[in-house]
Amino acid sequence: MDIGVGYGAQRPRLGRQLARARNRTKLGAALLLLCVLWLLFGRKKPVAQEPAQEPNDVQSLIQEREIRRENIRYLNFGRPFVNPATLALINYDNGGNMVMKKDSDYVRLVSERPNSVGYVFSRLPVSLQDADSFEAIVDFKIHGQQTRISLIGDGMAFWLTSQPLSQGDMFGMQNDYHGLAVIVDTFKNTPGKMRGNRGANSFPRVSIQSNNGFAGKYNKDDDGTATELGSCALHRAYNTPVDVPSRMRVRYIRSSGYFSVEFDLLGNDNWKTCFSTTDLAASLVPETPYVGVSAETGELFHNVDLYGIEVNSLKDASGRPVQSIDALIDRLDDKIDAETKQHEAKRRHRRFNKPKKNARRRSASRLRRAEQRAKQLNKELYNDERGAIGYFFNLLWRLFKYALYTAMFVVLAYIGLLGYRVYRDKRKRRNQRGLL
């Protein structure tokens, strides 16, 4: 005769059901936990990318002499930097802590010391006849003894402004400027990670900024990510493994809204596109912009050497300012199509038994550019490259995820409640004594 409390024989209904389903419950809980962990940590996170190298159609046009460069000599900056008669810089004014040595190939805008500023600004603006289509090439080098990228700062900037700027706190210049700035930022001020912004977590990085005279529009605390027109990672710009300077090339064509920023970090004519658009508002670049380059250090520092500035106007084959990059690129595409047709004709002549192929009506590069423009427009309107359909499905996916997370939380909470009840019943029966 059993005079004790047989737990197995006297379990309540809930406990008996949980005991029978214990292994399956544990397995289900483990699977749900794995799903939650995968959704939270297993998905790929955006990685800062280097500037993607695309076929340089504008450069191809220049090489094909469809676009001619005409040097604007009064905006050149290079050796010899100083006019021996006046002992002043040629074509440019300077300020801050800029250092220049005799017979040097460069001027040092800032040195490896804290809280330094150095800059040069052109005395004359780009003339009205040249300002509609021009390019500026800046030869520079950012280097220092510090080997840890996270311990250098602050960077340099290229300026196109309505007037020469005064010294200030935005990479050495005043922050209430009128115009456009291309910033090479070498120190990250933003805490944590910035998702959904290309290159925001990889420094040095490039940020294209604009302003119309508002003080404090550029926010150093978030590295200008809230106000930038575009950006890209440039994390190999510091201490490049070659002795030649790196190069930045900025091109602008007002009538077609074309603006591009490219870099050749190793100085070997291997240009990579950082930012390019064909819908830049004409109001963002002054009608006759001044050209400037500045650099700044804070508590962290590095050297910024400026080797030269070259500004060229861009003319078409007839000597007039370039009006439309797209029209000229289409002309280049038509030339490529004609060459392709000629090649196909020769090939068919050699192998006349092959069926005739239809000639391409549009080249791959033209279709690619049209696709990129459409994606950019959809991204601006709907925050998704696929347009309204992509926005709708993204909304559905977000709602599904929230519903899934809620369901998982409810299931896990219910499993936890069952476990707590079993534990409570066990404690009660351990404390019970006496006869049935």
TrEMBL record:
A matching Pfam family: Lectin_leg-like
Every L-type lectin-like domain range: 69-314
Keyword Chaperone attached: no
Biased segments, Basic residues type: 344-367
Protein localization: Membrane
Region (Disordered): 343-368
UniProt-listed InterPro entries: ConA-like_dom_sf, Intracellular_Lectin-GPT, Lectin_leg
Protein name, as recorded: L-type lectin-like domain-containing protein
Annotated source species: Ogataea haglerorum
